[in-house]
Specification:
This protein is mostly helical. The chain contains six helices and no strands.
Length: 154
């Protein structure tokens, strides 16, 4: 196959939501376990993941995630992006500390954190972005909350 055809197929893979869900779920499930196994400090975890991610995004990101919906850089989108980045930083540093401490049970705390990462955007999408409230979504959220309860409380 030509390089162009391989590159096009690779980019198309990142255009399929099912593929993205699987990649996200598996990668988000595996990398914290690997980092715990590495026994690095929380700061080292945050540094390695941030630097490696930045290098990959800056070099390959434009090929994997083609630019799509663009918003004019006015005050409001920039402020929203900054607030989002700050929240992501807080979450990432907290997550790094959570997976780095061997005395904390990763099989108890990490699934609860990941469940919250699913519940919050599901609720926010329905409440603030106009996405449909459906019995299926509400049932899924209730089941996740019950699962969090079973995992978190002994």
């Amino acid at each position: 196959k030509s390089f162009y055809k391989i590159k096009k197929e690779y980019i198309l893979m990142f255009s399929n939501p099912t593929t993205l869900v699987l990649l996200t779920g598996i990668a988000c499930g595996v990398w914290p376990v690997l980092m715990r196994y590495s026994a690095l400090s929380p700061l080292a975890v945050a540094t390695f993941v941030s630097v490696t991610s930045a290098i990959i995004v800056l070099t390959a990101g434009k090929h994997i995630i083609p630019s799509g919906n663009t918003t004019e850089l006015t005050f409001q989108p920039v402020v929203i992006a900054i607030v989002s980045a700050l929240l992501n930083t807080i979450a990432f540093l907290s997550y790094s500390k959570l997976i780095s401490h061997s005395e904390w049970d990763i099989s108890q705390y990490l699934p609860v954190a990941l469940a919250l990462m699913l519940i919050v955007p599901a609720l926010a999408g329905m409440c603030f972005l106009g996405e449909a409230f459906t019995l299926r979504k509400i049932s899924g959220i209730v089941i996740m909350i019950f699962g969090m309860y079973l995992l978190f409380f002994k």
